[in-house]
Each structure stands twice: as C-alpha cells, then as structure tokens.
Amino acid sequence: RCHHRSPAMLDVPFLPFCAFLGALGLLCVAMVGTWCQHWRGGFSLDGSSRTFNWHPVLMVTGLVVLYGAAALVYRIPNTWSGPKLPWKVLHGSLALGAFVLTVLGLVAVFCFHNSQGTPNMYSLHSWMGLATVLLFSCQWAAGFGAFLLPWAPTWLRALYKPIHVFFGSTILMLSVASCVSGINEKLFFSLKNGTMAYKLLPAEAVFANTLGLLILIFGVLVVAALARPSWKRPDSDSPDSRQVQEALGG
C-alpha cells in the first residue's frame, strides 16, 4: 500500500515536538504561578483571595498541562510494541493526577467564595468549568472500566475506544476554554477599585493575556498531535502494526 505524503504538511519528528510541548506546558505553569504570586498576593489557606490563587494554578497544571501529557502517552513510539498494560497504567495515572489537582482547584475556589459570602456557580466560566470536570470524571471512570479492568470484553473496548478518543480531545479544549475565560474574568474583577483599569492594559493584563494565548496554543498543539495519522498507535492486529513492531524490534 502506497502512502502519499502531502508537501504542505510539515514533517516534524514527534520527540522534538513533544519536548517543545513540554517546555510550553511548564512555561504556562510557571507563568500562572508568577501571576498569582507577583500580582495577586501569593498563596495561603486562610480563605482569603490568596486561597483563591490556588485555583488557577491547580487548574492550569492539572486540567490542561497534565491532562495534555496523559493524552499524548500513546503517541510515544515506544508504546507501539510490547505489552500495553504499563502504558495504560501511566495514561490512567497521569489522568488521575490531573483529576486530583482539578478537584483541589475546585475546593480552593469554593472555600474562597464561601468565606467571602460570594455566590457560587453564577458565571459562564463556572458552568463550563464544572461541566468539564464532571465530563472528565465520567471519562476517567469509563476508561478505567473499559481498558484497565481485565474482565471488560473485547467488543466493549472496540466500541468505546473512538468515543473515549473523541471526548479526550473535547475535554481538553473545554479545559482550555475554561482557563482562558477564567483568566479574563479574574482580570475584569481585579483591575479596578484603585488599580489601573483593564482597558488601559497594565503590565498584569499583558502578562495574563499572554498566558491565556500560550494555554490556547498548548491545547491546539496537543489536539493537532492527537489528530495526526502518522503519530497514532497502529491497531495491534493490523499489518501496519506488525511492520512497526518488526522495525522497533530490530
């Protein structure tokens, strides 16, 4: 079978792309931490605005960066041969870690709202964020039941796999949208009452807007990597998969 490579598609090796993506993710985490530390007063657990600051840091770290890493596990060429169980465990563990950080991020914002007497769940950002977390929890539970439990039938795994892949990308983009909308909402609330107005673009606004763009770029690149056919793990029973395994086995 002949494969025709489009000249318009950049032939980027996966591992350098993955290294760039990892550096971009770490930059997003560093920037959200710097924003909360430098401009928003730092971190604490006293119910004040410094408790809230854990929310953006944990959400960006868990719901975007760590979740994106979990999504790309099966694009690593080493996963294309040998037993899949260790990679399944790694994929599920990264996703579980992302979920734990996300829940802690929700706890931080609810504690802050409750201590300040602020209503919960009144904005589009909060609705979209909570919907993303609920969908994430369903995705992880269904993936655990279908792919990690030994008694799950093969036909169920085959039926659920494309659904799992679709919702994996969907959750990531919802996570990005939630984080970007949350950054914008925080700037609208914070840059007033004695601080320079948001519309005048103070340094904090430029920094946070840049953070939002980098988060968006990270999410788009992860989805692009997931959609690229040459980086997908071949099915174990396909001729392509046997060729890959023979090549990797030397």
UniProtKB/TrEMBL annotation:
CDD domains: Cyt_b561_CYBASC3
Chain segments carrying region Disordered: 231-250
EC number in record: 7.2.1.3
Subcellular location: Late endosome membrane; Lysosome membrane
Record's keyword annotation contains Cell cycle: no
Membrane topology field: Multi-pass membrane protein
Keyword Transmembrane helix: yes
Pfam families, per database record: Cytochrom_B561
Keyword annotations: Electron transport, Endosome, Glycoprotein, Heme, Iron, Lysosome, Membrane, Metal-binding, Oxidoreductase, Translocase, Transmembrane, Transmembrane helix, Transport
Cofactor(s) annotated in UniProt: heme b
Sample GO molecular function, one term: transmembrane ascorbate ferrireductase activity
TM region positions: 14-36, 57-77, 89-112, 124-151, 163-184, 205-227
Gene Ontology annotations for the cellular component aspect, listed alphabetically: late endosome membrane; lysosomal membrane
Domain Cytochrome b561: 20-227
Subunit relationships: Homodimer.
Task of the protein: Transmembrane reductase that uses ascorbate as an electron donor in the cytoplasm and transfers electrons across membranes to reduce iron cations Fe(3+) into Fe(2+) in the lumen of the late endosome and lysosome. Reduced iron can then be extruded from the late endosome and lysosome to the cytoplasm by divalent metal-specific transporters. It is therefore most probably involved in endosomal and lysosomal cellular iron homeostasis.
PANTHER family linked: CYTOCHROME B561-RELATED, LYSOSOMAL MEMBRANE ASCORBATE-DEPENDENT FERRIREDUCTASE CYB561A3
Protein name stated in the entry: Lysosomal membrane ascorbate-dependent ferrireductase CYB561A3
Organism whose genome encodes this protein: Calcarius ornatus
